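Honest question from a wet-lab person: if I give you the sequences of every part of a complex, can you actually get the arrangement of the whole thing, not just the pieces? Trying it with mine:
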Amino acid sequence: MAVTIKDLSAYLGLSPSAVSKALNGYTDISQETRNRVFAAAVKLGYRPSAIARGLKTGRTFNIGIVYSENSGSGFTHSYFSPVLESLKAEAEIQGYDITFISSSMRASGQKAMTYLQHSQYRNVDGVCIVCCEFNDPQIIELVNSGIPVVTIDRPFEGKACVASENVQGMKALVNYIISMGHKKIAMIYGSPSNITTIRLNCFIETMKENGIPLLEGYLVESLYHNPGAVKEAVAKLLSLPYPPSCIVLPDDFASLGAIELIEERKLKIPEDISIAGFDGVPILQMLHPRITTVLQDTFTIGREAAKLLINQIEDSENFIPRTVEVATKLIKGETVANNRR
Amino acid sequence: MAVTIKDLSAYLGLSPSAVSKALNGYTDISQETRNRVFAAAVKLGYRPSAIARGLKTGRTFNIGIVYSENSGSGFTHSYFSPVLESLKAEAEIQGYDITFISSSMRASGQKAMTYLQHSQYRNVDGVCIVCCEFNDPQIIELVNSGIPVVTIDRPFEGKACVASENVQGMKALVNYIISMGHKKIAMIYGSPSNITTIRLNCFIETMKENGIPLLEGYLVESLYHNPGAVKEAVAKLLSLPYPPSCIVLPDDFASLGAIELIEERKLKIPEDISIAGFDGVPILQMLHPRITTVLQDTFTIGREAAKLLINQIEDSENFIPRTVEVATKLIKGETVANNRR
DNA sequence: TGGTCATACTAAAACGATTTAGAAACATTT
DNA sequence: AAATGTTTCTAAATCGTTTTAGTATGACCA
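Yes, you can. This is the full assembly:
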């Protein structure tokens, strides 16, 4: 059906190799022949077969995406989805398609592949790891396999990474809350997720810097991106003898659990209790009260991840692994009350 | 690096063809040899190369996804994303990966490929079209190319399709609104989108069946999944001399525009004005007021689409193109006021 | 004993590209 | 005139599979 290089060569009276060379810019082809080849390629509608080329060259122009499988949200994940969207767009500009790498793929009745095996099976040129379970042994195996890798949010020794300036963002958020007059500030941090641990540490440090005491029971472990778990955590905080006036949540999406509980208790945000999230999920900024949060630049994160990965693939000798930090922005929103007297 | 069939054959003292046949269940291989081959495959960690197999057999176990590019939402699209998520999950179960087919891909400096060319370039076994611009000439070309195709929401003559029971869903919604005592009901319908036209017709018909007059200016064309455009449309309706008591919107996400405008006008939902959406977007059901809407079963839609496509790929002779209709469910929510006296 | 038939394998071509080595044609140098 | 160099092409191998055709071996039958 599709036009092959053989069809072209027959049409032109050339050898297949000459046609291939002409198309690929080899210098031992005359300008005239090159022109004829290009003209014929357009005329006959020739398209190279990605898989044939991939077989011979070992390059597929396909990048693998390890995407948070167990988050339960998939493509609807409020933070990863827009990152992925941007990553895909940039990859496409550079001529790469993306393939999702899972740990449940099985080919012809064999048992499930690991991430690494799936990557090899599809011969991806590199892999971008967009998820939050970096302690998974399969992730470790993949990162150390030698395949070009970029991770999002969590740096690995000697590997490329793209992450928000979490520390700066968190600091700005906590300073803002404090500047609004809050003293009784609690934090719910998510697990399992390396990123929320970084934010937790930053929270503690910023409180200390401001000389604000951290009351007993004010740090609650919960789950990232999980409204249900966060709802319980908020309940725990509100039933303390000295409940906080402001609660910092693991992320915006999880704030839905907080909002639900607070409504059930017939309390008002922010008059009775203030909350803050992290991420800057667009849909939540379209509703009232607009949540006070830290905007992550998902567009830049995704784009930089793609660039970093493709650089690495195409110029692996000169590539220097590094972590690219992407600026965040405080969104003051409407969920932190002014407590100054 | 990776173990090939040749490595296996050398290890076992067999010909590559024997190994291949053993792995693929040919009957002219003795049971004993077959066992040895499988054992060696496991031991050496053999994984077939998808591209080599694809080159020879013409089957890549890859399905193409044409995904709403111009919606501006990408992976964050409130309706398509969960459909895609489910589709991907089912495809994976059946051993297929997915590849996004775009109309902007360019390989080695050539000009952008059409959807069909991109599909051929990647040798996908079939394509699922998940978008709302079915009049795009490139979509038509793809649908008629002979590649196995499944569409979502919009049937094509002689092709497989999966769609919600839009008519039943819309009817239920309108009947519910009427049962709540509303008489002045307006509709904002989205364009360009075939699906909202179906819903519009159904709205008109259901109104007629109930003997409720459709007042002048009560049908407003706007845009699907576009809060900004819908906001304007609502403004138009509210400035009518006889404004509606209830507005049916193109979809849940677009309702954000309606809510914004209504808040700006210092009106209350549903006391002053009732609204209803379509889709059943989960995040909006977690907030108050929960929007009155029609839940689309995105999980089933995605799964059925994958099944239909893979059936067609794997048994094309016996495949009978058909439209699978998926049931919808009315969510009464909190945005339609009780107007019965 | 020679012919037929299964059985269980091997050889080789093929898929569609790329790439290395080599060759033909012609020009240039010594 | 022979040697050398340039330019521009072709031949053939190769990537890792699958698949068709063919072959060796032994069994069975007449």
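Two things worth pointing out. Residues 62-163+300-326 of chain A form a domain with the Rossmann fold fold (CATH 3.40.50.2300). Chain A touches chain B through 54 residues (CB under 8 Å).
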